[in-house]
Fold these 2 entries.
Entry 1:
Amino acid sequence: MTTYWVTGATGLIGRRVVDRLWRENKDVVAISRSARRAFAHLGERAVDLDLAAGDVAALPMHEGDIVLIALASRITTSADVGLLRQLMSVDSIGHLRLLDHLGDAATHVVYASSCTVYGWPARMPVSDDAPISPANVYALNKVACERFLALAPMSVSTLRIAQVYGPGASPEAALYAFLSRAAAGEPPIIRSDPETVRDYVHVDDVVNAICLAARSRFDGTLNIGSGSGVSLRNLAHLCLEVAGLDREPLVEGSPKGPRQNMWLDLARARQSIGYQPQISLRQGIENEYRRLFGATRTI
Amino acid sequence: MSSFLVTGAAGQLGASIVRELLARGAHVTGTDRVPAPPSLSSIPWVERDLASESGNGLAWPDVDTVIHSAGSKRDHPFRAGEAVELLYANVVSTAAALGCSRSVRRLVLISSISVYGATVGEIDESMSGYPVSSYGLSKWLAELVAALWVGADACRELVIIRLSQVYGPMTSPDNAMYRLIGQALESGRLDLLCPATLLRDYIHVEDAARAIVEGALGCPPGTYNVGAGRGLSMGEIAAAITETSGAVLGRFAGDEAAKDRYLSTALFLRATGFVPRIKLRDGIAREVSRLRSEQR
């Protein structure tokens, strides 16, 4: 019998992964700093643990093998290397400590990495084999964990995930800033180069990818995104349309240096685990608008 | 002249770097997780473990150059627990060393041939690929930390020195050369499990320290290999050991699949004019006589 251990269980992705596995009648252990309150129905299978500082030896052990779904992370876009200890202690170091504790019981890992490991490649969409070039400490921590897991004896699905949105996402993301403005009847403000291309993937598609990777035990690296890139200008237009506002976005940003585009090529994920994003950006934005501001309007 | 902070200053390489800097009249602060060794009792010393403390908010001196030689040399097959130790000792410690002083303008990062992973033959700085050992990976990640630090401020300078295998006093007895010396001294005979033509790369710790001080003082920012400057054959290494120890040279047999691995050092030679001073035979002779007197 396989048990699925999920770290970062109360995060944007983790909460839904735990729910999905539980609904599928899987044996799931939810780990986060506040898992017990969030998953009371899991009883002892919900464990309050800070991966950075907590005692992994206190975790419950059980018969059978373990698939570790490693989602715990802290997010920053800073390049300040002073933050590295804090980031690593949760994610790369925290997960390796956990694996050290699990020993042979852990037979597969699904690791939530990030498209930021590529830095800002010139060529779009970015293939799974593009060189890595971390541009901030967050990406560096992801690279560290990816590469150490690649040396580990068990199979590891490393998922390089694009920008995730959906219920629970950070309201600071451009998408939510645009939506809030549009909902208030104001045109979104684009604060950087409006032709910058981004890859927004809905959290439900990411959850799907994680479950597919856990089930297939795919050993290697996969890009997980929406399958298409959207410019900030088009993103703003989508938000305006969904809000039923016939306005043009305000552009305050301008091109500075090379364009920082991100758009992932999903070829390998489609082939190897059958990943197929289901929620179009238009549909996803409509859902978010309805959730946050009530009914959508159409022009 | 600049003021220097040397991390890992009580270690094999760190202590040699400090001595080399002092010999050139530099102002040096040492730091290590252990107290200053008696030979370095005259310099300012901060006793702190960079791997476990952030170092922020402590009374570090203002320095403009950090020579980061602290770190773990553990080089075993992957174990998750050891990966954790290497991440703290070699990666987090690099960030902590940079956090010691706001005034740092130049970082000299001591890296290793092991970042080249499975690359074989004569290796130059442009070769890429992922490291294949936990140790190599930790050194490669430390280089990425340093690259982020230097990228954040145009006034900062980064010199990365990728050393071949360092030998000399304080080298681990697990090191291949020291296992051979041990065998020769104990049994009076030396048999090797590799072909005599196999090429490896060794540099004496005093030469390595001199190279690093060159890197700290004048050389243009960049990534440089530092080693013997050529492949050293196992036959030549074995001959030096037997000649200086009086042991009999036995046979070479075994791992025919082993591949040559040594560093091209042309770039560092062009940047600094550096060439090692201690010939392999002389370096080995010193070690043989030191180990023999320790045995007695």
Entry 2:
Amino acid sequence: MLELYLPIIVMVVLGVVVALVFLALSMWLGSRRATPLKTTTYESGVEPVKTARERFSVKFYMVAVSFIVFDIEVVFLYPWAIQAGTLGIIPFIAMIVFIIILFAGYYYELKKGGFEWD
Amino acid sequence: MNIHLIAFIVLGILAIASAIGTIATKHPIYSAMSLIVHFFALSALYLTLQSPFVAVLQILVYAGAIMVLVVFVIMLLNLNEDEKQTIRIQSRNSFGIVLAAIFFIMIVTFIMSNPLNQPNSTNVYNLFTAQSLGSVLFTKDLVAFEIVGILLLSAIVGAIVMAKKKLIN
Amino acid sequence: MNEILWISLEALIKAIIILSLLLLSAAISVYLERKLSAWIQLRIGPNRVGPFGLLQPIVDVVKLIMKEDIVPNGANKFLHGLAPVISLAVAIMVWAVIPVADPIKIGDHIIQMGISPNADIGILFILAMTSVGVYGIALAGWSSNNKYSLLGGLRSSAQMISYELSMGLAILSIILISGSFSLSDIVNQQFSHWGGFRWNIFIQPLGFLIFLTTAFAETNRAPFDLPEAEQELVSGYNTEYSGMRFGMFFLAEYANMATSSAIITLLYLGGWTLPFAPSAIGLEQGTWILGLVQFVIFAIKIYLLVMFFIWVRWTVPRFRYDQLMRLGWKVLLPLALLNLILTSFGVLFINH
């Protein structure tokens, strides 16, 4: 166990450390001469109007919701896929039923225009 | 001191600290970030319990999917400063404390009565590999598994119904 | 306690080697991109720094480090710094489970050619890390307090999660065939049949196409580079980034391109394996020479794919966002599901 997962943790930590080092390097070596004009946000050369933190379309939210549901479906498929060869016919049928149930959800969303973007 | 104990203490502290951070920070996006750290700590804790599959699902589902929605919603609402309300209603706070206490007692009694708690029971960890999870899920818990499918279906339908008005406009 | 120290030390050495290789390959990819795009557009491309302009990427990085980090007005300073860290860290982390060759033997020690290629979560770990990578881009867009950034970040994260599903389903078909999450198992399985040539691309052609498409979308490369569609969004989520913070996004993008190529190679193109038994040309299993040969084969396959990525970027026009969403949800997802069901029927048929 240890020899399999300790290295992964080492790599995860190293990834974060390296990214932080890059950040620190540029803070340390880069020049800092911020002027009020320089720090205005870019808006094609005109004065920025209002803040950018506006409410945005609900469609993005729909994408995220659909993603969660189907992602959890996919997660349920992993324990099945890894030993589908050994499980036999009943789990297979169960899985097909599961997929059909979720495909019904997919079809419903499709027909209701959940995937339309215009 | 053995390594598992050290890992447990360090990760436990991280998990508790980030959980406190989730409810203590003012800005919702910091709360969300804190919760993501919490999920990572939990995931590492699962690794120390020799359940890598559960550990990776913890990140895949919670940090990678559910928190994306939460972050989206925080960004979607984009509360302005004047719209933020700090909830300081006393009755609600005390209600929360009572609820937390009940939950705490439930967890303690569960841990005390749980047979998995016995250090000698050998088949505890074997439950949580992808293979063993699969064989339990697709034989013994088949009905529960299909019900989960229907639950997910209703989740989709619910989301559509709620967003439908917006989608038509 | 001693054992733990040794494991960590070995892992750290390997991690540093792989990290250097990854950064090097990101630099090579940047050079390749500039040179190939120049040739495609009948230009010369970088040719001033070093022979054939080979040192250009290094000079680029030095320049980016020396530049000023501008944090725009009204930006969330903490998140503005955190976002590129997430992007780069995730791009590095995925290599924790990617093997580059068969294990080699030195004395009595078997050394895995990868940080932890035998971990039995392999490909799932990569999927999990990719899904966390969304935050880097979403937060960059949101924290910058710029309209272009916000739109770019949103588009990009919505695009990434949409295509992640089809990617997961395509991977599921591979898992069905191999019965393992571990990448070295998946590669060895492709090698162990049909005289070393049972590459998954031949039994999963549809899955390969789906995975390839989603890999383009996940790395935000053309024709899926909507988030940084210059004509409408300036530079998308990284509009307000400068200096090394921009450099980190840049590095992460090119590292991700190399990583995607590596994963495609491992899953579908036989990984590092030779098309025949290594003993046929006098190489023993477990020698370092064989390890080196396999690594070179792996690298060649990766770079051919990287060049394909670049070639596509400078050839194919960009999608419109509604087309992209339609492709992801209405075409790729049902196709991936169909592919999964067909594969599972195949596996069931063979096993019974």
